Amino acid sequence: MKKILILISFFILSATAGKAQTVIPAQYQELVKKLTANLPKSAEESIKKTENTNSETLIDFAKSMLGIRYRYATSNPKIGFDCSGFVSYVFSNFGFKVPRSSREFSGTGKETTLENAKVGDVLIFTGSNSKVRRVGHVGIVYSIDDDGIKFIHASSGKTHSVTITPLNGHYRTRFMKIVSII
């Protein structure tokens, strides 16, 4: 145990000592990798990750969660997602700092129009009652084609899971705005 504490201390001190290179003995490299796996990434690494993200990669990741059940106030794929938990989880996995609450998405990213929408943009809707014009739901633009826009989201509706839905009818009346984050 003492060796592990010394090793962690050595790594933390060497990581904060500037740009000097650190040589970790071979027998400890795997242990250091495991111990530091959950440490926050540097700002520089997050920026590189964000710059290299494209909408296709983001949507592929989102699509891998199709069918995960809806669960209010949750952003954990093992337990389930609510709408903002899903969107937040997807974007944060690519280094984007996004809100956890659907209401806060109104002030995030750059507002655009449906005509200029891109795959990966975030759609912002009212809650289930379209007459109450207050943000209550979010989803990610999944595809845009001749049939219109489809979006991927965690739905508390009939599917009660992460699903892909066309932007028409019910959701069209609930639509409030769209923002670009990528």
UniProtKB/TrEMBL annotation:
Keyword terms: Hydrolase, Protease, Signal, Thiol protease
Signal peptide (from-to): 1-20
SUPFAM superfamilies, per database record: Cysteine proteinases (SSF54001)
Top-level division of the source organism's lineage: Bacteria
Location of the NlpC/P60 domain: 52-182
InterPro entries: NLP_P60_dom, Papain-like_cys_pep_sf, Peptidase_C40
Similarity remark: Belongs to the peptidase C40 family.
Protein name: NlpC/P60 domain-containing protein
Organism listed in the record: Pedobacter ginsengiterrae
Native organism taxonomy: Bacteria, Pseudomonadati, Bacteroidota, Sphingobacteriia, Sphingobacteriales
